[in-house]
Design goal:
Strand content: 35-45%
Number of helices: 2
CATH superfamily of the domain at 120-282: Exo-inulinase, domain 1
Structural class: alpha+beta
Oligomer: single chain
Order of helices and strands: HHEEEEEEEEEEEEE
Radius of gyration: 47 Å
Number of strands: 13
Length: 283
Amino acid sequence: MKTTRWIILFVLIGIGLFGCGPSKSEIATSEAETQAAIDVLATDIAGTQQSIQAMEDAAEKTTTAEFNQGATKTHNIELAGTRRAATEEAEIIAQTQAASTMYDKIVELNTYGYINDVNGKYYELDDFNESMAMINYIRPFPTGLSPKNFVIRADASWDSASDNANWFNSGCGFIFHRADQDNYYLVYLGLDGTVYFARKYRDEWANLGYSIYGPVGIPEGEANLMLVVEDNTFTFFVNDERVRTQPDNVIPEGALALTLVSGTNAGFGTRCKMENLGVWVMD
C-alpha cells in the first residue's frame, strides 16, 4: 500500500518537472477565447438592456397616450355636461320670461274685465307647423291640455299654395271644450280678415257668429292670436285687438287643440305655423 502511494507521488512530481501541464501559448489561447466569450456575453447583455429600455419607453408612451386619451374623454364629458347645463339654464330662463310675459297679459286682461282672476298656471307648448291640401276642411292638433277656463296666445303665420283659395275657409285658430270628435267649439282668423266662431254639437254644425278684423296678408301673412275662455264667454284677439266676444254654454268643458283650416287642395294646400305658444290655465 505504501509502495503504491510513492509511485503516485513520483508520477505527480514528474509531471511537474518535465512540463506535462499546459503551455503558455495554450493558456494565452484559453484566455483569448474566454475574453471573446465575455465580449459576446457583454454584447448580448447590452442588447438585452437596450430591448428592455425600448420596451419601457414604449410602455411609458402607451401609458401617457392612454392617460391623455382618458383625460380628453373626461374633458369632453365635462364640456358636454357644461353645455347641457347651460342649455337647460337658458331654457329655464326663456320659459320664465315667457311665463312673465303671459302673466303681464293676464293682469292686463283682468284690469280690463275680460277675466275675473289672475291666479293660474302657465304651460309652454311646442311650435306648430302643419299644412293640409283639402278644400273647406279643418283638423285638430291636440295640446294635451283640457282646461275649462284659460288664455292661449300664439304668433301665427300662414301661407297658401293658391292665389284664389276660399279665404273665409283658410286660416289658423283653436278648437276648445272638445268632448269628442262630434262636440267642440271652433274659432279661427280667416284669411278674408274675419274671426269666425262655430260649434259642432252632436255632429251638427252651428255658426255662432263672426266679426271683421280687417285685411290680412294673402296668400301669406302673420298675426298674433289670443283666445280667452272664462265660463260661458269666449273672446278672441288679433294683434292684441279684441275682435269678437262670443257667449255660449252648450259644451261646458273638454280638450284644447290647435287647428288649421284649409280652403284649397292645390299643392301643399294651406300651411299654418304657430310659435311662442303659451297657455294660462286659470284656477
